[in-house]
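Sequence in, structure out. Go.
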Amino acid sequence: MNNEEVFNDEFFKQFKTGDELNGFLKQLQKRGIEKMLEGELDAHLDYGRNERSPNPNSRNGHSKKKVRTSFGESEITVPRDRDASFNPMMVPKRGNMVDGIENIIVSLYAKGMSVSDIEEQVHKAYGLEVSTSTISRITEKVTADITVWQNRPLEAVYLIVWMDGIVFKVRESSKVINKTVYVAIGLRRDGKKEVLGLWLGKNESSAFWMSVLTDMKARGTQDILITATDNLNGFTDTIKNVFPESKTQICVVHQIRNASRYVVWKDKKAFTADMKAIYNAPNENAARAALEDFAKKWEDKYSYAIKSWRENWDELTVFFEFPLEIRKIIYTTNLIENLNGKIRKYTKNKLSFPTDEAVMKSVYLATREATKKWSMPIRNWGIILNQFLTIYEKRVRL
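Output:
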């Protein structure tokens, strides 16, 4: 055991109970908040505590204020200035809650907890009495954040954009109806993923996707190299109308599910195994030959499945035009489905939403939680970028 560990052990032994340790940490936090407020005032006045003021405004003593923190309620001293223009970021005027607690409340809401559950949780964990109306006001601030985020400028070029919809039940005119939150994820030129936006509409349709794509273009996106979608009727044509040079890959996993939908249970294992020969083929010619073999075996029994492969063939086989590393990330919409799964996990406690605003607020917060770790480029990014530059050099460098 080193000296630092001995010191830490001896230091903590002075606290006989958890309450004593909590009290010490509470005092430590109080002093830290007060020091940061003094620092904020120094920056606001543009001079330090023991310096002469270079402007007419100056320090004007302190006021007392009760604030709520993660260690409970504390009374702190807040520095003032003579012209009352100082509004600290740490504890804003007319605010009595340090940002940390507000962030905890927003995080709990994002994870699907109800307002009453959050009230109980905050009281149990931190000993704070925070009313449901206060919690509602805190989460309402998110609405403004959504507006700013949804209208932010986008990149000029995205190498890949995955698109999908999630259905939620929302109350409208005293009825509960299905509405779709449309989600788009873009792969940027630095290899990082970015949720481009969330749009709420009625049942998923290519017509609404047209408005989504138009919005993306209005926010600065000039080109998308590849789009990965489900096989919604008319989707490819819709994309071509807005981004005419984009190649559209229909999700093979969606195709497998659709083709297997009407297959009886005893045939399903053999049927899906035979389909693997199509999408695991080394090139499109081999895949087409595999489709013909598949058709000879199953067409008499499941003609619909064969027909769906043939009708969507051009969009299902786009991935064969690319090297293996790119193929792996475009032939399925697993990436966006994983995000949708996390959104579902966070919102599963909500059987239905009272308003459009409520569903958007929950989905936005769930998305923010689910994408916190999206800080690194995707795997094998150096290889993938070089492949994109080889195929689309002028468009990638736009």
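Check: DSSP finds 16 helices and seven strands in the chain. The first strand starts at residue 59 and ends at 69.
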